[in-house]
Design brief:
1322 residues; mainly alpha; two-stranded antiparallel sheet; two-stranded antiparallel ribbon; 67 helices; globular
Length: 1322
């Protein structure tokens, strides 16, 4: 026992016995008598015996405590014994309740054993509720009783008369929280830890406890005299006790703010600050009132945090070396989106702006997204100041000159932020304000002669405009000629499977990404108007020889011109492509240097355009082939050469043919294929041997063919044992060519069918795997290892070659190879063979191959069905518009597969195939049922809706009526989310964009109303339903809505619906009849919400996708982009771009602190202290103010000022209304020799009432004003300086009041230089 608990009055023996009793209680407390975990696994009789034992011990403790209370004890020891007595009584009550429950369960016959005994359910005679057990085996009633006991114990420990004594319920050494805590705080820490654990385990207890009682119990543990562990445990208890908004509201009524402020001010204490930050985040999460229509508010909610706590929290976030800075910044960003006014009043708005420009880099995208969301609303947009606030994100770029190479990484991260802003409507329109001042500042940095900054900004424009940079770009930048650039051998010979897959995906996305072309067209127009081409011309014109940077600028210029030609109207593109400065320099014959620069730039741009078709043929894949194409004569010439070569080889002379056979070394070195002349052998097989005469000669007159075929026999173990490496794959191709040549003549077919053992040995090899053919071979030819590591898999390719011709099919049937395939398809764990068979068979002819494919499609193994479905989809995709009915039937069958993955894959392939109108018609004729697919089949059903036959089929099935109601009520809103998420992913290069975009067709995802409008019957039903009329009425009523988010969301959905209807020729008449296009244009130009303007921009592009729609928009000064054939492509831009992208100016928001004003101090010394504390916020005079405070505190007669609660409250009020850095806040706190505890908090509340000024209170004018040029509070003597430290500074008598001149006068001085001549006035 600690020495401070010793009591000298009673006899030693009595005290010893008494202390022993209390100590026994402490020992029992380690087991926690109210915890019944040890009873698990015992039968009811053993449980009752254990409870009786515990009850006996607790009864003894109770008797001993009562006996001690009858003795003369000190107040401290009496309080401790009373606490033990209360705890013993509560334990006795809990044990009795447990015994009653067990006895009741025995009487009712509901006995359970093992671990289930702790979780049994029983029903009391007087209660109907069921008790549930928590993880420790405590039921709700026991847990609640324990929590109340802990709170009562904390209240006892926190009584003012209680000295810092140790409670009898000392924690064991196993609790890590108390390992480093002082001995005096261990009872506090132990009790609060147990209370926190109880609250964490039982959510129901948290709802039952009173938050007021809990906070009042733990607040004494937050006093300054308590340890850090004690503070952390107290904050943890408070955090776990918060369950809903009402509990947070009641928490706000408790005097907790000053404890939190002081805990956040501590710099070096980690654990306490962590718990405080967790508490603040819980308050924000649980206690926020989220309401989008708060009266008079400018935010979407109210966060129940006071201004003092917010300013202390912001100070932690501002500390650069604080480990809590990232989480504090994220929390402030969350609060910004909920209660922007609170963040604005407390200075967090300005701090987040600086964090956006200065870091942390990893959090900048999140902060920028929050600011863009705020700009999108007119009520929150007023908090920004145009030209100074959000433009701080541009500072790493605009201020980069002279910063050195270390600044490059910060510039790169800043460009990512700028790209994200410019790819949103809010950011683009904000930066276009004030005559595009922000964009011009970015572009003008290209004129600054800094290599690294220019390089980074050029890369930013490449990414921003979605310009892909293939390999040959680097060839051009390095200064090499593009005509000398050739593709790698890998790309010439054939791409890998992965590269082919990427190419196919990009090809599929080429149509989908047109949705972004509308936005890119606007970006190109905005950047060119802001002077991008002029800035690039400046870079190009700096040198005549050309550098990597100038060539990169030329490349960007050429790409911008190419983009303008593709996405902008003709007259706009022509104006941009004029590039007057380049043409001006090229035609400047007076300045040779300018002429060289101009002609070089024009030549480079022309070279890029000419070589793009050769280096990137995929860009022209979907365009119509020209008759005068340069590549057509080349291809024709190559085909002619091949035909002549084949004809000459087939007419080879006898002697030459015999010599060629001998030269192949097949006849002489038939056992060593490495000596064979492979090239000559392949030339003979693909040439002369196609002649039946030469084939007969090779089979009859010589042993050439027999020995060559013997090489491919499986049991010869020559071809079948060769390792599967790239160099050996040519032998598989040779075998396929040989079989093709043999099938070209009757003698070859007869040779394979009756004279050679190749097919017979193949059948025997397959039979080795058949378990019904006796004992299987130990090392079969087609074992999984051999198929994976040797050329044995080449036999499947050869059999696939045979399946391509009728004679080959007959040979396969003759040798019963198809029967072997049927048996193999039933083997377990041989999916490699099944996949190889499916992949290599040819399905052009009806017969066994198609049956094998259908058998694989219905295999019992899901992975086989997935692979077969994928192969079937590839077959349909490869057949282009000539898909057969049998493939479509098989694919439709897969829609009913039990595995959702197979259904989804089949639906995706079918949807892709239905892009062809002919295939869509075939599928509709098959009349599939897809109601069971749910959302997977919706895109496919929408395609059916676009055809008359499909629409009639779906209408008869009741699908149209059901979908109309769904889209009118729900799916219109979901469509908006789908489109906006897609655009976000595409612009931000998300990895998931490819998967999501596969569901998109054309420029936008399919919309039910748009698909309906493609048929006459659909237009008729749409007219009868009246949905379109309701849409137009909603637009007329709420087109310029800027407040209600639900109305804004619905407005977007209706705009997309109208745009999709107007994108069809039949649906455009709806828009003309309702005269809704002028209203959409009015919303696009005047809506206060930038995102709604952007929606209108895309919608107008949809309307411009038809020739009639383009003509209608042309009447309203919106120009549509046309193809070279004069067809509308679905892109349009306004003629008055500045009007569209400009946001109307707003009045700057002003918000004052809601903290009340205080009555100024009357004492001269107090006034000087308060003034010095206020001056600490000014970094210019902070040093002088701190010296003044230090000197005053060192004077004995002034120390009372720093111990006054009134002055301490004034200091707290100052740091709660002004911005102070964290070290300064700590310095101010440490100035006062006051311990923060419950008594001081009560006194601070009285100070608040006593010092609070009336709202109409006017601050009196004081004679002694504070000047930053002299000492505070009195006149400065000429001989004094700031560093003066004479002892009589603070004791000098006040000087008589004199009329002083102000230190600085703002009145301009008048001074006459020269002659003072009076000028007469007429």
């Amino acid at each position: 026992m600690p020495a401070n608990l010793a009591v000298p009055a009673p006899p030693a023996s009595l005290i010893s016995s008494s202390i022993t009793l209390v100590g026994s209680g402490a020992a029992l407390d380690n087991d926690d008598a109210t915890s019944f975990t040890a009873l698990e696994g015992q039968d009811p009789a053993q449980q009752l015996a254990e409870l009786d034992s515990r009850l006996t011990k607790q009864s003894r403790i109770k008797e001993g405590a009562e006996n001690m209370l009858n003795m003369p004890l000190t107040d401290a020891l009496r309080i401790q014994v009373e606490s033990e007595l209360d705890m013993a009584r509560s334990r006795i009550e809990a044990i009795n309740n447990k015994r009653t429950d067990i006895q009741a369960s025995i009487e009712k016959g509901k006995q359970v054993n093992g671990a289930a005994a702790a979780r049994k359910k029983f029903q009391n005679g007087h209660a109907s509720s069921i008790s549930s057990m928590d993880e420790r085996g405590e039921d709700f009633r026991t847990a609640l009783q324990n929590a109340n006991n802990y709170i009562a114990n904390l209240l006892t420990l926190g009584r003012p008369t209680s000295p810092p004594a140790m409670n009898g319920s000392a924690p064991s050494s196993s609790i890590p929280m108390t390992s480093g805590a002082p001995e005096i705080d261990r009872p506090w820490i132990d009790t609060m830890t147990r209370l926190a654990n109880t609250l964490q385990r039982s959510a129901r207890v948290r709802y039952e406890l009173s938050i007021t009682d809990t906070v009042q119990a733990v607040i004494p543990a937050l006093a300054d005299r308590r340890s850090t562990q004690c503070h952390s445990a107290a904050y943890r208890v408070i955090r776990l006790a918060l369950v809903d908004h009402d509990s947070v509201k009641r928490l706000g009524e408790q005097p907790l703010d000053w404890y939190i402020v002081k805990s956040l001010t501590r710099i070096a204490i980690y654990w306490r600050k962590e718990q405080v930050i967790k508490l603040i985040r819980t308050i924000v999460d649980v206690g926020t009132i989220r309401n989008d229509a708060l009266p008079g508010g400018c935010s979407s909610g109210l966060v129940p945090l006071s201004e003092p706590v917010m300013r202390a929290f912001i100070a932690v976030a501002e500390q650069a070396d604080s480990p809590f800075r990232p989480i504090c910044i994220l929390t402030l960003t969350e609060i910004l989106l909920i209660d922007i006014d609170l963040v604005w009043r407390t200075g967090g708005f300005r701090f987040l702006l600086h964090a956006l420009g200065e870091g942390p880099v990893e959090l900048a995208p999140i902060i920028s997204s929050a600011f863009l969301h705020i700009i999108d609303s007119p009520r929150t947009r007023s908090y920004f100041t145009v030209g100074t606030d959000l433009e701080i994100a541009l500072s790493p770029i605009t201020d980069a000159y002279g910063k050195g190479p270390d600044h490059a990484e910060r510039m790169k991260s800043s460009t990512k932020i700028i790209q994200g802003m410019l790819r949103s409507w809010s950011g683009l329109m904000y930066f276009c304000m004030a005559d595009m001042r922000a964009l011009r500042s970015i572009i003008d940095t290209l004129r600054i002669p800094s290599l690294e900054s220019r390089e980074i900004i050029l890369n930013m424009f490449f990414d921003l405009l979605k310009i892909k940079t293939p390999e040959w770009y680097q060839t051009f930048i390095d200064g090499r000629r593009l005509t000398m650039y050739k593709k790698s051998r890998h790309s010439q010979d054939g791409r890998s499977a992965e590269s082919k897959k990427e190419a196919e995906q990009s090809e599929r996305l080429s149509q989908t990404l047109r949705l972004t072309d509308q936005y890119i067209a606007l970006l190109v127009l905005v950047f060119t108007n802001a002077g991008l081409l002029d800035a690039l011309t400046t870079i190009v014109s700096e040198t005549t020889t050309g550098t990597n940077l100038s060539r990169k600028a030329t490349l960007l210029m050429a790409e911008v011109l190419q983009l303008a030609n593709r996405v902008l109207p003709l007259w706009v593109a022509a104006r941009i492509q004029a590039v007057p400065q380049i043409f001006g320099m090229a035609s400047d014959y007076l300045d040779g240097e300018h002429r060289i620069i101009g002609t070089s730039a024009m030549s480079a741009i022309d070279s890029l355009d000419r070589n793009r078709a050769r280096l990137q043929p995929s860009l022209l894949r979907h365009t119509r082939a020209r008759a005068n194409s340069v590549e057509d004569p080349v291809r024709r010439g190559q085909r002619q050469v091949e035909q002549v070569k084949l004809k000459m080889s087939m007419q080879m002379e006898d002697k030459t043919f015999q010599a060629a056979l001998l030269e192949t070394q097949v006849i002489f070195a038939y056992k060593d294929h490495t000596k064979w002349n492979f090239d000559l052998l392949l030339e003979l097989i693909e040439g002369p041997l196609l002649n039946p005469k030469r084939m007969e000669e090779a089979m009859r007159a010589s042993k050439f063919m027999r020995r060559l075929m013997n090489f491919f026999h499986p049991f010869s173990h020559r071809f079948s044992d060769m390792p599967k490496i790239k160099a050996n794959l040519k032998w598989s191709r040779l075998g396929c060519s040989l079989l093709t040549t043999l099938l070209a003549c009757p003698d070859g077919v007869r040779f394979l069918g009756s004279e050679d053992q190749f097919l017979a040995q193949i059948v025997k090899s397959f039979a080795q795997l058949d378990p019904f053919n006796g004992v299987p071979d130990s090392d079969p030819i087609f074992s999984k290892k051999r198929v994976g590591e040797t050329l044995t898999s080449g036999y499947l390719e050869m059999l696939g070659t045979l399946s391509k011709q009728k004679d080959g099919i007959e040979l396969l049937e003759k040798f019963k190879i198809f029967t072997a395939f049927y048996h193999l398809s039933e083997l377990r764990s041989r999916e490699d063979l099944i996949k190889g068979i499916i992949e290599n068979l040819d399905y052009a002819m009806d017969g066994h191959p198609r049956i094998i494919l259908s058998k694989a499609l219905t295999s019992s193994y899901k992975h086989v069905r997935l692979y077969a479905t994928k192969h079937l989809g590839d077959l349909i995709r490869g057949s282009a518009n000539n898909a057969n009915v049998w493939t479509l039937r098989l694919l439709l069958t897969q829609l009913y597969d039990p595995a959702p993955e197979v259904c989804e894959m089949a639906a995706r392939f079918l949807e892709e195939a239905c892009e062809s109108k002919d295939i869509l018609q075939l599928v509709v004729e098959l009349r599939p049922t897809m109601d069971h697919l749910g959302d997977i089949g919706n895109p496919l059903l929408l395609k059916f809706t676009s055809t008359p036959m499909g629409f009639r089929y779906l209408y008869d099935a009741g699908y149209i009526e059901r979908e109309l109601d769904l889209w009118f009520n729900e799916r219109n809103l979901f469509y908006v989310v789908q489109v906006e998420v897609f655009l976000s992913k595409v612009f931000n290069n998300a990895a998931e964009a490819e998967d999501e975009s596969l569901a998109f067709e054309g420029t936008v995802p399919p919309h039910f109303y748009g698909e309906m409008a493609k048929t006459d019957l659909g237009c008729q039903i749409l007219q009868e339903k009246g949905h379109f009329s309701e849409f137009t009425q909603f637009i007329r009523r709420h087109g310029l809505e800027g407040e209600d988010p639900e109305i804004i969301m619905k407005l977007k959905s209706i705009l997309w619906a109208i745009g999709n209807v107007g994108a069809t020729e039949g649906g455009l008449s709806f828009l003309e009849e309702e005269e809704i296009i002028p209203h959409v244009l009015d919303i696009a130009n005047n809506s206060p919400i930038p995102s709604i303007r952007g929606t209108c921009f895309f919608v107008l592009g949809l309307i411009a996708s038809t020739s009639q729609g383009a003509e209608v928009l042309d009447d309203y000064e919106w120009e549509a982009t046309l193809s070279p054939q004069g067809q509308a492509v679905g892109l349009c831009i306004p003629l008055d771009v500045e009007k569209f992208i400009s946001i109307p100016p707003w009045t700057q928001h002003t918000s004052q602190s809601r903290q009340p004003r205080l009555i100024p101090p009357k004492s001269e010394v107090e006034l000087e202290v308060i003034t010095a504390i206020q001056n600490l916020a000014n970094s210019v005079i902070a040093n002088a103010a701190s010296r003044t405070l230090t000197k005053m505190k060192s004077r004995p007669e002034h120390r009372a000022v720093f111990s006054s609660p009134d002055m301490f409250y004034r200091a707290l009020h100052i740091i709660s209304t002004q911005r102070y850095r964290l070290p300064v806040r700590k310095y101010i706190m440490d100035l006062f020799n006051i311990e923060l505890d419950a008594a001081l908090v009560v006194e601070l509340q009285k100070c608040d009432e006593r010092l609070k000024a009336h709202p109409h209170f006017k601050t009196p004018k004081l004679d002694n004003r504070v000047s930053m040029f002299g000492r505070m509070g009195r006149t400065r003597r000429p001989e004094e300086s700031d560093d003066s430290s004479s002892d009589d500074e603070l004791d000098a008598p006040p000087l008589p009041k004199v009329q002083e001149q102000p230190a600085i006068t703002c009145r301009p001085q008048k001074q006459i230089i020269g002659f003072d001549i009076a000028i007469p006035v007429n």
